[in-house]
Amino acid sequence: MKTTLEELQAFVAVVDGGSITAAADRLDQTVSGISRALARLEKKLDTTLLRRTTRRTELTEEGQA
Questions:
Q1: I need a labelling partner for 14 at 20 to 30 A (CA). Which of 1, 42, 58, 64 fits?
Q2: How many domains does the chain contain in total?
Q3: Looking at the domain assignment, is residue 65 inside a domain?
């Protein structure tokens, strides 16, 4: 499966904004839409890119690479 522009935009927006909510606001999408895009990207890459907590979203080592 190919990575889509939507998935990459979601990932970059989360990293830049620090949270899925901030990314959703920035891209004018729903939080669930951003979460689904991230889940698809992580599944395609077979790795966890982001560590999610109730307050923050941080890059894993794989996400930093």
A1: 1
A2: 1
A3: no
pTM, to two decimals: 0.90
Alpha helices per DSSP H over 18-60: 20-27, 31-45
**CA separation for the pair 54, 60 (Å, rounded):** 16
Q: What is the CATH number of the domain that holds 56?
A: 1.10.10.10
Burial class (CB in 10 A: 0-12, 13-18, 19+), 1: exposed
- What tokens appear for 64 in the block? 């930093």
Q: Tell me the per-residue pLDDT of 10-53, one tens digit each, with 9 for 90 and over.
A: 999 999 999 999 999 999 999 999 999 999 999 999 999 999 88
Top pLDDT among 65 and 25 is at: 25
